[in-house]
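User: Run a structure prediction on this.
Assistant: Running it now.
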Amino acid sequence: MAFAGKTAVVTGGAQGIGRAVAAAFARAGAAVVIADTDQAAGEDAAAELAEHGGQALFCLCDVSDEEAVRGMVAATERRFTGVDVLVNNAGVGGGGILTGDLPAWDRVLAINLRGAYVCARAVAPSMARRGGGAIVNIASTRALMSEPDGEPYAASKGGMLALTHALAVSLSRDAIRVNAICPGWIDTSGWRPRGDREPAILRPEDHLQHPAGRVGRPEDIAQACLYLAGPDAGFVSGQRLVVDGGMTVKMIYV
């Protein structure tokens, strides 16, 4: 129960990686706020946490909307008095230089990068009043390497890494640490809303191409979040942690 008495806000926490992160913080004793645009999935996620003894609040929130984010933080403070941890997980993909358009570019950057900045800016005063806190930005290995036609997503996640070290310096005066996680291939099929879950469809070669011997799970990212947000990482700030089963260090020749 390392986070007993703490409050963690997880954006995009209704399903996928975010839902696993929210569950992990709840199991570790934190009160959890799930901020998401999918109301049905978000309410289901909060209800599931509560059924397992957790304290959970769902807030309908578009992270690119500053007023919506301020409202979410205000609701958090009313319910749980303040914010100790923020996990900037909300994100979308879409389009590229060959198939996308500028509105698609703007949407991806608005949610993935602007959203992380808006949320960090909104929670920082609450964290400062509580003597400090931790922000974990969920970036991607796409910030470090690419497949064709993924420019908006790659740019947003690369920007998130730069934002991470900038925030770490700016917010250090209030004892707020900021770090980033770069997930690789993470299978999220088991972390959908209840009633929409299905077994993973993965081939042996999908697992074997990873030096770790398997495709990643949302729980892998959740455990990294717990570490970076917790006291054991008290001397870690402004850093990126790649959690990809070793894929970004594997040389491939065709």
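The chain has a mean pLDDT of 97.
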